[in-house]
Design goal:
The protein is α/β, with parallel strands linked by helices. It is built from eight helices and eleven strands.
Length: about 260
């Protein structure tokens, strides 16, 4: 599948009538120009969403809906953030898109996906396995034939967009690809919030943080030693996570940073 590289006027139209700006990037050195051509400029507070996609089971999906609808999407709108995720119509990325739509929000929601793994609206690929989520506002389509190829691009795009403004990553559920996302966020020196009670990788990391003698700790020790992690319980997220995020991102305003956006 091939699109025009570095095209500023490429627009995707989904079957529900939603439209999104998109650009295909061939090399990492093109990334700053690609973000500029999408109308996205630094310094903008950035929230990175990582976690379960097609393997997020229905019970975990249902428990996360309220978090996205009542906390993450409204807060992104209130604080003028950009949200960056994997962009596919599954799991936490689908939840983010649906919450943005339900809240009638206008914050930029940027999906970063490997070009060979996703079906574009009106096009198909024999090796693609996921559709793009139709409520995202922007897409970066990056080289890759495997899930996880997009992980370093997500992390670097978030850093370029945030610039001197704060950014943070939130992990919910997740598997092997999400662990790669965590590692890339850590490499970018971005704090990772781990939402315990959401299953799989998030709960494994929570267990490792709480119990240094656990089997999970031994497996995850390299990334845990290198990174900055904050642990929250999903059941207490409204009471604890929201004020934490508000304090974290409002620091940008207190420092006099003015987000720039030309969407």
């Amino acid at each position: 599948m091939q699109l025009s590289s570095m095209s500023s006027d490429l627009e995707l139209t989904f079957s529900n009538g939603q439209k999104a700006k998109a650009i295909q990037v061939q090399t990492r050195t093109d990334l700053p120009n690609a973000l500029h051509e999408l109308g996205l400029e630094a310094a903008i507070p950035v929230l990175v969403i990582i976690g379960g996609a097609s393997n997020l089971n229905p019970a975990d999906y249902k428990r996360l809906e309220k978090l996205f609808n009542e906390l993450l999407a409204p807060l992104a709108e209130e604080l003028g953030m950009v949200v960056v995720d994997g962009g596919t119509d599954a799991g936490v990325m689908q939840l983010m898109g649906l919450a943005r739509n339900k809240n009638q929000a206008s914050f930029p929601l940027v999906g970063v996906a490997p070009i060979e793994k996703v079906h574009l609206p009106g096009k198909s690929s024999p090796i693609a396995s996921q559709h793009l989520e139709p409520h995202h506002s922007h897409f970066l389509l990056v080289p890759g034939e495997e899930w996880g190829d997009e992980s370093p691009w997500i992390a670097e795009a978030a850093s370029l967009l945030s610039g001197s403004a704060p950014s943070i990553t939130i992990l919910m559920n997740g598997g092997n690809v999400s662990l790669k996302d965590v590692e890339e966020s850590v490499a970018e020196e971005r704090m990772v919030i781990v939402l315990a009670g959401t299953g799989r990788l998030a709960d494994q990391i929570a267990s490792a943080i709480r119990n240094p003698q656990s089997d999970d700790q031994a497996k995850l020790s390299p990334v845990l030693k290198q990174g900055r992690f904050q642990l929250f319980e999903l059941s207490k997220s409204a009471r604890q996570l929201k004020p934490f995020l508000e304090r974290y991102f409002l620091a940008a305003r207190q420092q006099g940073l003015q987000p720039k956006l030309n969407a």
